[in-house]
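Dear colleague,

Following up on Tuesday's group meeting, I ran the structure prediction for the two-component complex that the binding team flagged. I've pasted the input sequences exactly as they went in, so you can double-check that nothing got truncated or mislabelled along the way. The structure tokens for the whole assembly follow below. Feel free to forward this to whoever is handling the docking comparison.

Inputs:
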Amino acid sequence: MITRRDFLIGAAGAAGGIGLATMSRRARATPAAMQDAIRKVTGGAPLRGGRVKLDVPPLIDNGNSVALTVSVESPMTSSDYVKSIHVFTERNPLPNVLSVQLGPRAGRARIATRVRLADSGTVLAVAELSDGSYWTDSAQVVVTLSACLEEALV
Amino acid sequence: MARAVVNVPATVRRGEIIEIKALVQHAMETGFRRTQLGEVIPRDIIRQLVCTYNGAEIFRAELHPAISANPLLAFSTIATESGTIEVTWTGDKGFSVTQSATITVV
């Protein structure tokens, strides 16, 4: 015979299980996944702060289109220039956002684009310089309306 | 055929740094969304953007699903000579669009 107490414990467990299943269906990148993605780019080289400036609004109404600008302080001469710029985020389903390759012909190391952000968290930019060093900058953002995971109206 | 725009200043001085803005019409379907019946909508994104200046490559970008629909990318180059700046986008399902802009260097 099932007592009232057993029934309630069982029901609570089942409800918890449903909650967990719903969470896991929404697969998300984690800070660890972002670190892995960064390591793939840098090959484990140390990241230094400064020189890079990541410009992204701190409060985002709509995560579907977020204006993002990365600029790197560099003379952009043939001996000292920015080779590549990479952007990562820790809360999207995939940590990679954008990778660009440029050279001394760019004249100025600055790129601008529009990105999707699924949730509040850290956005991070990494710049690779021609001398093999990596520089970084990050920003904390708060996202009100999430991108990527919403139901499509089709 | 998707519409695309490459915006550069028409006339510039030699050696000036110019901004190139490249915009293309594309849904950038992430592959993480579902229909109301629960089926995953397959990924369909632009993977790559390559920009050439009179045939020489000056900029290359790898795009991921986290880039918004109708991707816009702004970047810069030094105006060295008159000619064409050509941008090619390639992506899933054989997507390939090329758009060019002419620039006059004085």
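Residues 4-105 of chain B form a domain with the Immunoglobulin-like fold (CATH 2.60.40.10).

Cheers,
M.
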